[in-house]
Amino acid sequence: MEVFVDKKSQLSDQSLKGAVLGLLSYFAMKVDLDPALIAMCMPVVAGVLAYASTRVGDPGAASFLAKAASEAPEIMETVTKKAAAKKAAPAKKAAVAKKPAAKK
């Protein structure tokens, strides 16, 4: 099964998970929990977030925002068309104005 995760939703998903981990560690420090306990809990919380995202999003990707290609064929078609148009378009070169050499 092919999974469609665009760059923006992947960044959003990872930022959301990072924010949850950051807030959790911040509040754990404010409550004065043992730093070793906090450090041991972080991978567990990250694993729980990854598991939860497979339940909420697509099971093939640990992302809350991922959609399977079978669920979003119109998105895949749009991305394919944009990629084909990008390949077909000739590369534009920037025009550089040459200055005449100064006479000595």
Task: Provide keyphrases for this structure.
mainly alpha, two-stranded antiparallel sheet, 60% helix, 4% strand
Describe how the helices and strands are arranged:
Elements: E1 3-4, H1 7-30, H2 35-56, E2 67-68, H3 73-88
Antiparallel strand pairs: 1-2
Helix pairs in contact: 1-2
Your description of this structure?
- α1 packs antiparallel against α2.
- The N and C termini lie far apart (70 Å).
- This protein has a domain at 3-74.
- It has three helices and two strands, in the order βααβα.
- A two-stranded antiparallel sheet has the order 1-2.
- The protein is elongated.
- The protein is 60% helix and 4% strand.
- The longest helix has 24 residues, at 7-30.
- With 104 residues, the chain is mostly helical.
Summarize the structure.
The chain is mainly alpha-helical and 104 residues long. The protein has a domain of 72 residues. The protein contains three helices and two strands.
Strand order of the largest sheet: 1-2
Number of strands: 2
**Low confidence ranges:** none
Q: What is the chains' assembly state?
A: single chain
Structural class: mainly alpha
Shape: elongated
Q: How do the SSEs run, as a string of H and E?
A: EHHEH
Number of helices: 3
User: Alpha-carbon distance between the termini?
Assistant: 70 Å
Helix content: 55-70%
Average pLDDT, to the nearest integer? 75
Largest β sheet strand count, sense and barrel closure? 2 strands, antiparallel
Q: How much of the residues is beta strand, in percent? A: under 5%
| Rg over alpha carbons | 24 Å
